[in-house]
Structures are given as C-alpha cells and as structure tokens.
Amino acid sequence: MGPAALEPRPGRDRLVDAVRAASLAVVVLGHWLMASVSVLADGRMVPANALTELTALRPATWVLQVMPLFFMAGGFANLTVWRRTVATGRSHGAFVRSRLTRLWRPALIFVPVVPVTGVIAYVAGQPASDAARLAVLLVQPLWFLAVYTGIIVVAPILLRWHAVAPRTVLATLAIGALLVDLTRLTGGPPVVAAANLALVWVFAHQLGVWYGDGRLATVPRRRLWAVLAAALLALVLLTGPGPYPVSMVGLPGQLSNMSPPTVCLLVLGVGQGAAILLARPFLLRMLGRPAPWAAVRRFGSVAMTVYLWHLLVLVVAFGALLAMGEPPPEPGSATWWLTRPLWLLALTAGLAAVVGLVARFGRRSPGPSR
C-alpha cells in the first residue's frame, strides 16, 4: 500500500475513521471477555456473563461501552455523504440507497449462516429451544444495523433541522429521553422505553454532526474538561443514589442501561465525546504516521464483518472446549485470568480466518455482495 493509498478521501477525518474502527474492536473484545458458558447436569449449555460475578469490573463498562462513539462517527459520515449528495443534485432517496447498501452488504453473507448454525447445534444434541436461542444470540449484533437503518432513513431530515436549530435538536432529544426514562421508572407501559432506541442513539448521531460541521473542534479545552467532569459526576449520581445500575451493559436481574438505552448512555456519550476531543491533538499526530493509519484503514475495511461474525467464532470456540471435555473456567478464578490472553489470541486468529474466507467469497460472488 503506497503513500497515496493511505491518504484519506476528501471529506473524511482520520480521527473519525479511527474512532469507528476502535469502537467496534472494543465491542468485540468486550463480548469475548464477558461471555461464559455453564454446563448443567443434563448437558445443556447456559450462557453466562462474567460481570454477574465480577461486580468490581462493572465500572469498566463506562470505558468499554463505546456504542455512543460509533453512532457519533455515523453522524459525521452521514453529514459528509449528505453534503456530497446535495452538491451533485441527487435526492433523499439516493442518499438512503447508497448508505443502506454500504451498511447491509456485509450482512448478506452472514444472515444465511445463522439458521444453519442453529440446525447444526440441534443435530449435535442440543434441545430445539437451546438451538433457537443460539440463533437469536447470533443475530443480536443486527440490532445495531436495524437502529442505524432507521437513522439513515431520517438523517436528511435531522441534518436539515440541525442546520436551522442545532441546539434545539439536542435539547429535544435529551428531554425526550429523560421523559421516557421517567415513564419507565414510574411503572409506565414497558413499550414506552423502546422510544429511547431512537432518542438516545439519534442524540449520539447528532453529536457527530456537530463535530462534522466544525462546532466542536473550536471548543476550549477547559470547557471540554468541565464537560467531562460533569458527565462523570452525573453518572456517579445516576448510578449511586440514582436508580440506574453501574454497568453500561445489560445484566440479568437488574434494569438494563443498554436494552433499551437510558439517559446514562446519553450522558456517557457526552463524556466520551469530550474525552476524544481532549485527546484529538495527540491522536491526530499518531494517525499522521504511516503504520497506525494503515492499521486503521486495514481494520476499518473489515470492521463490520468482524462485528457480525465475532459471536459465531465465540460460540464455535466454546463448543470446541466442551467437545474436548474442558468446561470454561469460572469467571474471576485464577485460571480464568491466566487464560484470558491466550483465549483472546485464539479467538482473534479464528476470526481473522473467517474474515479472510468471507472476503474471498464476497469477491467471487456476483451481484450486491460483490
């Protein structure tokens, strides 16, 4: 890859590309670290979450829960593409088609594999209900594609609104998310909570739009520090004396900050955005070097494929352990900690092989997946 190939295309931002790639990588590593499996006396496999036992690690999700950053990167990208769409005289529909094609193309190969995996689990001796739950687990990453699809459809409307009243957009979304949570916490209809799937993630998307139009690049550093400190204080209050759990990922037996998202994730996104802007000068200097930028470009080109397939690789790895008569170590045990580096290395190697196969199949396949 020559120097010219490493230069970002006009309208791109190296920091945004790095944040997008890094956020998906953190999601994958977080899932690999948290996931575990218990084997019942009748041989059934029951999924478990390491954070259920390792309560001291739950505050780490304030760093590891990076989906707000990914939606921010999406806001920047949508603004950039929309400007290009308008400049070339194309329509709202053309914008939506181009963005959705890019978003869903990696899923065309993945989705048909899910029912096949469920059938294999059933043939291997798992009850039909467990095989079905496995298939549901594998399609869980598609929640992001579904939510982001909705955002893409309405993005031109949001961008026009932002151009007229940017502060009003953020305030409306934040107040709406707060009202939804108040309804949820006071015993309102559970379906109301689903509205935050739009309100919270669109809020993060609009923060990316603010960065894309240059509004955030000029914010003084002392103000960014104040915003970061305020966000941290708000999270402490919301999850301490407040009604929300500390974990920013859903855990059994407690209110979930993630499904659907609460105002905690909205506040977390504000804090993470401030932190990234504070680190921006250093990160841009680092990304100006050939090796780090080449790594971002390389991973960014396969990031969505990595995101879609990482749970299948995890399931296969657990299946291989159990087939060899080696149940996974108890989360938090000395064996668990000592084997994490090797576990992550093995999963990375397996996922790299899968990504290579998917890329080769995609190149050979005609039509939209090409």
Automatic annotation (TrEMBL):
Pfam families: Acyl_transf_3. InterPro entries: Acyl_transf_3_dom. The keyword Plastid does not apply. Residues 16-356 form the Acyltransferase domain. The chain crosses the membrane at residues 21-41, 61-82, 103-122, 142-161, 168-185, 191-212, 224-246, 258-279, 299-322, 342-362. It comes from Jiangella alba. Keywords: Acyltransferase, Membrane, Transferase, Transmembrane, Transmembrane helix. This is Acyltransferase family protein. The keyword Transferase applies. GO terms for molecular function: acyltransferase activity, transferring groups other than amino-acyl groups.
